[in-house]
Amino acid sequence: GRTWTDVGELCAEMKGETVLIRGAAQAIRSTSKKIVFLVVRQGMSTVQCVLVVTKDIISPQMVCFASSLTKESIVDVEGVISVPGMLITGATQQVEIQVRKLYCINRAVPNLPFNIEDASRSETEFKEAEESGEQLVRVGQDTRLNNRGIDLRTPTNQAIFRVKSEGVNELRRVLLLKKFVEIFTPKVIAGSSEGGAEVFKLEYKGKPACLAQSPQLHKQMAICGGFGRVFEVGPVFRAENSYTHRHLCEFVGLDVEMEIKEHYDEVCDIVEELFMAIFDHLNNNCSKELEVIKRQYPFQPIKYLPKRLTYDEGVQMLKEAGVEIEPMGDLNTEAEKKLGKLVSDKYNTDFFILTKFPLRIRPFYTMPCYDNSEYSNSFDVFLRGEEIISGAQRIHDPEMLTKRAEQCGIDVKTISTYIDSFRYGAPPHGGFGAGLERVVMLFCGLNNIRKCSLFPRDPQRLTP
Ligand code: 4AD
């Protein structure tokens, strides 16, 4: 076979070498019949390729053929690397390919829904263009998502999904090292796993069923099953009615569950170790991706240090800043943002754990505090003032669990096998669930969770 070179690896040291690449023809620019510039893209990288009419090497017909290529057609380019004084096309690689051979492998239709270059511009570029009287095409989010197959090709999207992949890789590495077992729980289940109305109902061979709102019940049953420490990376379904920047109807849940020896702090310890490692990993291994994202959507890197506060301390900080919370109530989006800002200013971190929430605002399976049952052994984790994780110690006593489920209005019959799992000897345990798209969105300072979902599902979107 022939040797193929990655566009991202093309560099000045290769000057004079003949290379062969395959990519998409992102732009085709011709100012005369004798010369044509192609920008060929592969992943996050682009390279400028030039064809100049040259006796016995490049015929006028070949230049004509190159000029007639449609944008996004897949091309094979063979040519010699050179280092031009100036790149006219703004390609990422600082070299040029003097084309010798050019093949069109697959021709794209001429009327694309939008150009990748148009979908890759930053707000600054729009502003600059406006000032100079130039008209740039804006590509709206719905147009992009309706045509996600092509939208995913922008360098920024290529970068976002590589960051997402690296984040999960690091999560797996750290948890496996800490002796967690990766599990795969069912997604079609008999009763709702989190309670509430946010559940997709379906029929399972004539019986009522739903799509799992989380692996909650089954990851706990895996702990009853003797695995000690488990985790899962898998789809989570929420029939959310909220059409917001941070809610999806299907997202990737990162779920962890573990035996607790003495205190639910042990779960918070894992949260901190895990997320410090993930953030370090992304900063150290995805610097190119983060630069690409930042170019289109500028953001400040997160500051992250382990920091824990109780709910009461958080509420007190808000009070002192003039923000009142309903007594023993949930923090609304605005209060969360405000608290994030206060903690960031005071403790120099955009990441923190808020512990010991009032019991009444937590799910039925949450363990009340031993010394004050108004509160619970629970926590939420915030990044840039938005929730990325919720977790808790769980009730492992079947009678107490039944009582709490009833108090929370859950039909106990639908979860009887779950409750029964605790009748045969169940260790104290706890865990947490994170939303992968939320983590990526906030780590990269993005303004919409849909940017972090390959094919987002929200209340209005079921395709593509
Ligand atoms: O807070 P949630 O609903 O908690 C649970 O599912 C528990 N079973 C977790 C546990 O182990 N105790 O969801 C956990 C995380 C949230 O913190 C958030 O990051 C994300 O999942 N999440 C969503 N992400 C996108 N779209 C939605 N609609 C989300 N709902 C929750």
SS element count, helices: 14
Could you give the count of β-strands? 16
Chain-averaged pLDDT: 96
Structural class: alpha+beta
Parts with pLDDT < 50 across at least 5 consecutive residues: none
Morphology: elongated
Distance between the termini: 36 Å
Strand content: 15-25%
State the helical fraction.
25-40%
Q: Rg from C-alpha positions?
A: 27 Å
| Ligand inventory | 4-amino-1,4-dioxobutan-2-aminium adenosine-5'-monophosphate
Q: What is the H/E order?
A: EEEHEEHHHHHEEEEHEEHHEHHEEEHHEH
Description:
The protein has 14 helices and 16 strands. The strands form three sheets. The protein has an eight-stranded mixed sheet with strand order 6-10-11-16-15-14-13-12, sandwiched between helices. Strands 1-2-3-5-4 form a five-stranded mixed barrel. Helix 6 crosses helix 8 (265-285) and helix 10 (311-320) crosses helix 11. The chain has helices at 60-67, 116-119, 123-131, 141-146, 148-151, 155-177, 216-224, 265-285, 287-296, 311-320, 333-347, 398-407, 416-420, 436-443, and strands at residues 18-32, 35-42, 45-52, 74-82, 96-106, 181-182, 188-189, 201-204, 207-211, 229-237, 250-259, 308-310, 351-355, 378-383, 386-393, 429-435. The protein is elongated, with a radius of gyration of 27 Å.
